[in-house]
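User: My advisor asked me to double-check a structure prediction for Carboxyl-terminal protease family protein before group meeting. I don't want to rely on an old file, so could you generate it fresh from this sequence?
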Amino acid sequence: MKKNKSFFIFSVASMLTLSLFGASQKDEVSARIEALSKLDKTISTVEKYYVDDIEFKDIIDKTIAGLMQNLDAHSAFLNEKAFKDMQIQTNGEFGGLGITVGMKDSALTVISPIEGTPADKAGIKSGDIILRIDGNSTVGMAMDEAVSKMRGKPKTPVTITILRKGEPKPFDVKIIRDIIKVESVYAKMIENGDILYIRVTNFDKNVVSKAAEFIKKYSKANGIILDLRNNPGGLLSQAVGLVDLFVDEGVIVSQKGKDKAENAEYRASKSATISKAPLVVLVNGGSASASEIVSGSLQDTKRAVVVGENTFGKGSVQVILPVNNKEAIKLTIARYYLPSGKAVQAVGVTPDVIVHSSKVPQNENEAFMIKESELKAHLKSELDKIEPVDANKTASKKDEKELITTQKVNDDLQLKTAIDVVKVLKIAK
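Assistant: Sure, here is a fresh prediction for Carboxyl-terminal protease family protein from the sequence you gave:
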């Protein structure tokens, strides 16, 4: 009787509401009422007949989570635990593996391992598909649930099952969680090249200030290589600021959404520009989001040559909108557009010079020289065990930390190509 009375009041209220609108508005309101009635009936049916007892709050949480998951790969419902985890991650220190993941073709895919983290050391690669986490299938699993399963207390193990292109079958990788602390920017000079190499591993709040510091420190460099490979992105403001260090006018990136209030255009300013040196940007399939904004913008404005492989294709804007003081939704509200008007989402950035990851090809004489160099290094390290290390040797080791050695260049065809392109740009300039 109580339910019927409630339904009668709901029906009368609906009729009164409908009477206030015109014909087209009535149709729209009727459609919304009908849809809400269907949702209410479905929830009531699940609550009454589902095989296991399930609390009403859990039904609602699952309903919201399902809605978010079906919108796109990046929208999500953040329950109390997920919301706390996100806040911990934002503070920059958490227990995990050190990989950024995304949904690609409905598969949980590694965007990139973060340099120096347990996942990176375990050999996880961009493009790897994670089939299972500790034996639990990821098929149909929400991305935030998968991320939550991979996080945990430092020094605890987790086993992920990887499907990798070129491998005959899936294989397990056991990784020990650790506190993830990332050095977002570092710089070195290329040995015998007089070229500044700047590596940006992710876009945290320190990127622009650190990059500017290195550019000023090595202001006499004949060119700059900006390495964004396996960089999963981060703060939009830092991506815009990094481009602004090299570009003095025009649009850097714009974002457009349904709500015009979310539309924005970010432009370069002359006062922020500190370098006109020849510039090459390195990217690969692990370069996503903010990395794609930087590489795509510098490419569109003809400020840099982009070298490497096609980027990931994540060009959408998410915001965290609180549902209450403990829960929130992460919702896609806009998409990024490059200066040319091209969208990044699902397309990515195509390099000017496509180079796949491999070692630099060597002729027999060059190969022998490298092996001889490796042998000398080995013999020196053996001598160090029986002879005291003098100050000059210590200084030499310090220098190595500030240089990209010829050996390292020869192990990285993409980097070698970038160096050659900088040299060509220098000549052209």
